Amino acid sequence: MKAKVKVGVVTGSRADYGLLYPLIKLLRDEPQFDLCLIVTGQHLSYEFGYTIDEVKNDGFKVDKLVETLLSSDSCVGVTKSTGLGLIGFADAYSDLKPDLVIILGDRYESFAAAIAAYFAKIPIVHLHGGELTEGLIDDAIRPSITKMSFFHCVSTEAYRKRVIQLGEHPERVFTCGALGIDNILNETLLGKSELESELGITFGHRNILVTYHPVTLENNTSEQQFASILEVLSSFDIDRFFFTKPNADIYGKVIIKMIDDYVKMNSGRAFSFESLGRKRYLSMLKYVNCVMGNSSSGIIEVPSFGIPSIDVGDRQKGRIAAESVIRCGTDDSSIYHAIEKALSRDFAAHCKSVKNPYGDGHAAERILKILADYTGSLSDVKKSFYDIEFTV
User: Fold this and answer.
1) Is residue 183 one of the residues assigned to a domain?
2) Which residues of 368-380 are buried (b: 16+ CB within 10 A; e: fewer)?
3) Per-residue model confidence as pLDDT tens digits over 49-64
């Protein structure tokens, strides 16, 4: 009988957990694998909703906690959090001894998890490699994790080519689609009245969901950019504003304060949430007219709901996007025209038939099959650089 493969899965925030959920569920239920769940980052912070409770409420056993989050959003604080995570992951891997580790994306806690796994000679399965986010420190972290990883499960064919361009062998780079689409197509979402009751809100005729995060490769631009968004939004006839607060990032606290102040000044019209959770967030997308901000969700998941997304600034610059995504600058005029377009009847109708380039809702199944079919030795993590021959 073939021995079980012990798979460590790292989750550090509400965002990556929401994406990883369908894969974690398959790994838990598949007899061939022994799931080890490692929870870290803002999951363990009350300031960000203590979302480890969501993980537990979904019925998953948490095998290790790795503290990384310091109460600071400065460059120094994030650097120290990464170092703290590196120490914690070294201990976690030593105790759990996983055969491989699954890491999604590009945040600093993912970076710490990857470095510790690489030093421990544990093969890394990297999800969502090859993507670009030119406004973020993540844009350097992501290819760094790629170079430490053994398997690569990317969301589009263009991203597969980019990972291969980094010298990764094509036989270990797989186009699987985005896990977020799995949730949309396979989750039973909440009805409007049920969602309103759970969140203590009411939807109006026009509703906008705003998710704005700091642009971490810019110095102190977040306050000015977000102030422009709030000012322009207020000039439109919109019944309800729903804000999801930013992740634990450099300069994030100023955004949180601005959201809190805006909600106080617009009681009954504006609402904010530290964390909606996977199901409630996706359910809300069914009942809003538009999503605005600079989150990857606006580009990857939202198009599957047939509604417009407004992507403000450079945070997601470089990502492949559906035709329903409106990119705009950070000045008042650009933001105004983007909102005007998103709320127009013609564009809203066009969005209903737009194709999402990020997959068909079977990414988790593809990833599981790749791991199940692998016949090589997981103890050998040596790789050779794959050279692409260029014609001049």
Assistant:
1) no
2) bebbeebeeebee
3) 788 898 999 999 999 9
